Protein backbone atom coordinates (compact mmCIF):
# COMPACT_ATOMS: atom_id res chain seq x y z
CA UNK A 1 0.00 0.00 0.00
CA UNK A 2 1.44 3.37 -0.97
CA UNK A 3 1.95 6.00 1.70
CA UNK A 4 -0.56 8.60 0.56
CA UNK A 5 0.45 12.00 1.82
CA UNK A 6 -0.70 13.80 -1.27
CA UNK A 7 -3.36 13.16 -3.83
CA UNK A 8 -2.43 14.08 -7.37
CA UNK A 9 -5.24 14.03 -9.90
CA UNK A 10 -4.61 14.01 -13.62
CA UNK A 11 -7.10 13.87 -16.43
CA UNK A 12 -6.55 12.94 -20.01
CA UNK A 13 -8.85 12.90 -23.01
CA UNK A 14 -10.16 9.52 -24.05
CA UNK A 15 -9.33 9.70 -27.74
CA UNK A 16 -6.73 7.17 -28.81
CA UNK A 17 -4.49 9.90 -30.21
CA UNK A 18 -3.74 10.76 -26.58
CA UNK A 19 -2.72 7.25 -25.57
CA UNK A 20 0.90 8.38 -25.23
CA UNK A 21 -0.36 10.39 -22.23
CA UNK A 22 -2.16 7.36 -20.83
CA UNK A 23 1.10 5.46 -20.85
CA UNK A 24 2.92 8.24 -19.01
CA UNK A 25 0.23 8.74 -16.37
CA UNK A 26 -0.57 5.11 -15.64
CA UNK A 27 3.06 4.14 -14.90
CA UNK A 28 3.01 5.68 -11.43
CA UNK A 29 -0.73 5.69 -10.77
CA UNK A 30 -2.00 4.15 -7.56
CA UNK A 31 -5.54 4.09 -8.95
CA UNK A 32 -7.76 5.60 -11.60
CA UNK A 33 -11.34 6.42 -12.56
CA UNK A 34 -12.62 5.32 -15.97
CA UNK A 35 -15.30 7.82 -16.99
CA UNK A 36 -18.00 6.63 -19.39
CA UNK A 37 -20.64 9.02 -20.78
CA UNK A 38 -24.02 7.26 -20.57
CA UNK A 39 -25.55 9.42 -23.29
CA UNK A 40 -22.92 8.67 -25.96
CA UNK A 41 -23.14 4.97 -26.85
CA UNK A 42 -20.64 5.58 -29.65
CA UNK A 43 -18.03 6.09 -26.89
CA UNK A 44 -18.62 2.73 -25.19
CA UNK A 45 -16.19 0.91 -27.47
CA UNK A 46 -13.60 3.59 -26.74
CA UNK A 47 -14.15 3.07 -23.01
CA UNK A 48 -13.57 -0.66 -23.53
CA UNK A 49 -10.31 0.10 -25.33
CA UNK A 50 -9.11 2.41 -22.56
CA UNK A 51 -10.03 -0.15 -19.93
CA UNK A 52 -8.05 -2.85 -21.78
CA UNK A 53 -5.11 -0.49 -22.29
CA UNK A 54 -4.93 0.36 -18.59
CA UNK A 55 -5.44 -3.20 -17.36
CA UNK A 56 -2.58 -4.36 -19.59
CA UNK A 57 -0.24 -1.83 -17.97
CA UNK A 58 -1.19 -1.82 -14.31
CA UNK A 59 -2.91 -3.80 -11.61
CA UNK A 60 -3.83 -0.57 -9.82
CA UNK A 61 -7.40 -0.47 -8.57
CA UNK A 62 -9.93 1.51 -10.50
CA UNK A 63 -13.57 2.45 -10.46
CA UNK A 64 -15.99 3.08 -13.29
CA UNK A 65 -17.70 6.48 -13.21
CA UNK A 66 -20.78 6.73 -15.40
CA UNK A 67 -21.56 10.31 -16.34
CA UNK A 68 -24.49 12.11 -18.00
CA UNK A 69 -27.10 9.66 -16.73
CA UNK A 70 -29.59 12.54 -16.62
CA UNK A 71 -29.31 13.27 -20.35
CA UNK A 72 -31.93 12.26 -22.91
CA UNK A 73 -31.20 8.85 -24.43
CA UNK A 74 -28.74 7.98 -21.65
CA UNK A 75 -28.19 4.26 -21.33
CA UNK A 76 -28.93 2.45 -18.11
CA UNK A 77 -25.74 2.08 -16.05
CA UNK A 78 -26.29 -1.68 -15.74
CA UNK A 79 -26.26 -2.00 -19.55
CA UNK A 80 -23.03 -0.01 -19.74
CA UNK A 81 -21.45 -2.26 -17.11
CA UNK A 82 -22.48 -5.28 -19.16
CA UNK A 83 -20.75 -3.80 -22.22
CA UNK A 84 -17.60 -3.20 -20.16
CA UNK A 85 -17.64 -6.78 -18.90
CA UNK A 86 -18.47 -5.78 -15.35
CA UNK A 87 -21.84 -7.44 -15.00
CA UNK A 88 -20.56 -9.28 -11.92
CA UNK A 89 -19.71 -6.00 -10.16
CA UNK A 90 -16.05 -6.92 -9.73
CA UNK A 91 -15.07 -3.33 -10.49
CA UNK A 92 -16.80 -0.78 -8.25
CA UNK A 93 -18.89 1.72 -10.11
CA UNK A 94 -20.90 4.84 -9.51
CA UNK A 95 -22.82 7.46 -11.38
CA UNK A 96 -21.52 10.97 -11.11
CA UNK A 97 -22.01 14.52 -12.24
CA UNK A 98 -18.59 16.05 -12.80
CA UNK A 99 -20.05 19.51 -12.20
CA UNK A 100 -21.13 18.66 -8.66
CA UNK A 101 -18.25 18.65 -6.17
CA UNK A 102 -20.00 16.21 -3.81
CA UNK A 103 -20.53 13.75 -6.64
CA UNK A 104 -16.86 13.93 -7.63
CA UNK A 105 -15.79 13.59 -3.99
CA UNK A 106 -17.93 10.47 -3.58
CA UNK A 107 -16.31 8.93 -6.66
CA UNK A 108 -12.83 9.68 -5.33
CA UNK A 109 -13.74 8.22 -1.94
CA UNK A 110 -14.88 5.05 -3.69
CA UNK A 111 -11.51 4.88 -5.41
CA UNK A 112 -9.58 5.49 -2.18
CA UNK A 113 -11.57 2.69 -0.53
CA UNK A 114 -10.34 0.36 -3.28
CA UNK A 115 -6.77 1.48 -2.65
CA UNK A 116 -6.90 0.72 1.07
CA UNK A 117 -5.63 -2.66 2.24
CA UNK A 118 -8.32 -5.10 3.23
CA UNK A 119 -8.75 -5.07 6.99
CA UNK A 120 -9.41 -8.42 8.61
CA UNK A 121 -11.53 -8.27 11.75
Structure description:
This protein is an alpha/beta fold. Helix content is 36%, strand content 13%. The protein is built from four helices and three strands. Strand 1, helix 2 (44-57) and strand 2 form a beta-alpha-beta unit. It starts with 18 loop residues before the first helix and ends in a 6-residue tail after the last helix. The mean pLDDT is 87.
Tell me the radius of gyration: 14 Å
**End-to-end distance:** 18 Å
- Helicity level: 25-40%
- Relative strand content: 5-15%
Counted beta strands: 3
Q: Tell me, what's the shape?
A: globular
Q: Detail the poorly predicted runs.
A: none
Question: Major sheet: order of its strands?
Answer: 1-2-3
Q: What does the largest sheet look like? A: 3 strands, parallel
Work out the helix count. 4
What class do helices, strands and sheet pairing give?
alpha/beta
Mean pLDDT: 87
Secondary-structure element string:
HEHEHEH
